[in-house]
Amino acid sequence: MLTVEGLHVRADAVELVHDVSFTIAPGERVGLIGESGSGKSLTALSLMGLLPEGVTASGRARLGERDLVGVPESRVKDLRGRALSMVFQEPMTALNPLMRVGAQVAEVMTLHGRPRHEARERAVELLERVRLPEPGQIARAYPHQLSGGQRQRVMLAIALANGPELLICDEPTTALDVTVQKQMLDLIAEVAPALLFITHDLAVIASMCERVLVMYGGRVVESGPLRDVFTRPRHRYTQGLLAASRLTPRGTRLPTIAGSVPPAGRFPSGCVFRNRCPHATPACETTPALTGDGHAHACWHPAD
Ligand SMILES: Nc1ncnc2c1ncn2[C@@H]1O[C@H](COP(=O)(O)OP(=O)(O)OP(=O)(O)O)[C@@H](O)[C@H]1O
């Protein structure tokens, strides 16, 4: 559905993204991972036609039959927020602080031609779909009256408003606390028609995506099904990333158990890696992820 071929992004003479190619099939969830500055956001922004001033993209990117790169702004604008939409890391900067959230959800629909009264009704339905309590009341609130997690749900409602074919999420849960993160990730996984998910966090990729692209220095250095990349990383950068991921986001080093599954009960319930470890056994209900060396286990516990 999305085909990216030989995408380059430049700022003046400096090439920031080099020759990036990948595809996303309908319904597929693809993770884009890499260290800070590796070019993940610029790759996503070039698909959205939202590159900062002075930064340009070349190459080919198509959503179905529609070109996304090297086409007039009016054409990309028509696709943006409709066929293709994006959720950013910090909802407070993306939302208008002076406008009620229901009106902001409705606006993205009226911009694409839906009558105002219909858009207002649909906005409340969307707020309900992203599981905001009392959606009618939330629709009348201003962004500062909501929590960070609620604001991010509003952003998701905006992204879903026109029934996109592809949702791009750039670190959508980084600013949220760990429990809220898990709920948000579950929601995104449930509602995304197809997903390009950008994060630094391998554990999040493992819980969300079927395929992963690893970026380093502006290039995709490795890609493949999640299990292959996680169990047999080929690039040294990916190997390092996987080794580093033994630290949980909370900074606790979890037990490393060479060549075996962890004893039952060692890992708390609610583990996001459930059923993903190739060593899974019935005794290992909350299965940890397999890290780079093929033996050690690491785990991320959103609830503990
Ligand atoms: N407007 C700009 N002008 C010049 N260089 C830029 C601009 N925006 C980003 N860059 C550079 O492009 C490179 C890739 O940036 P990008 O934001 O895509 O990285 P990233 O992988 O998304 O990082 P992070 O995870 O920190 O968001 C970086 O070296 C960055 O400094």
TrEMBL record:
InterPro entries per record: AAA+_ATPase, ABC_Ni/Peptide_Import, ABC_transporter-like_ATP-bd, ABC_transporter-like_CS, Oligopep_ABC_C, P-loop_NTPase
ABC transporter domain residues: 2-242
Keyword Cell membrane: yes
SUPFAM superfamilies referenced in this protein's UniProt entry, alphabetically: P-loop containing nucleoside triphosphate hydrolases
Gene Ontology terms: biological process: peptide transport
Membrane topology value: Peripheral membrane protein
Keyword tags: ATP-binding, Cell membrane, Membrane, Nucleotide-binding, Transport
UniProt KW Kinase keyword: no
GO CC annotations, alphabetized: plasma membrane
Location relative to the cell: Cell membrane
Pfam families associated with the record: ABC_tran, oligo_HPY
GO molecular function, one term: ATP hydrolysis activity
Primary location recorded for the protein, binned into one broad class: membrane
Protein family (similarity comment): Belongs to the ABC transporter superfamily.
Name this polypeptide is given: Dipeptide/oligopeptide/nickel ABC transporter ATP-binding protein
Species in which this protein is naturally found: [Actinomadura] parvosata subsp. kistnae
Upper classification of the organism: Bacteria, Bacillati, Actinomycetota, Actinomycetes, Streptosporangiales
